[in-house]
Amino acid sequence: MTRDRRKVPIGTSPRVRDQPSLTTSSGRSWLLLGGLLSLIAIGVLIPMLPLEPAGVALTGICVVIALYTAMIVARLNAQPGRQMLALLATFMIAIAVVGLICVGVVAARQGEVVF
Q1: Domain enclosing residue 50, as ranges
Q2: Mean pLDDT, rounded, for 61-72
Q3: Does any domain span residue 6?
């Protein structure tokens, strides 16, 4: 299969790893979106604090706060570039995973689902 010979504008690579948010970004957008995701996760977990199993929602809130704090520390201390941006993306994914797992565990317990 041959590649189309039409001119492709510079900086419009179809590969995900070549996107500006993962190559040349300052990291500010990752912090903003990570903060928004953290607020959403914490906002969902706060009403679950009194629910069983005890401590899961509180643990989730603490881990989300720690991960967002790690994002800020990484942004301030890491060398700008791909590694810093990959680190910020990893922390943001971890925030989403922790929030989802904690909400899932509490919801499963309330629905009396046995793992």
Answers
A1: 31-110
A2: 98
A3: no
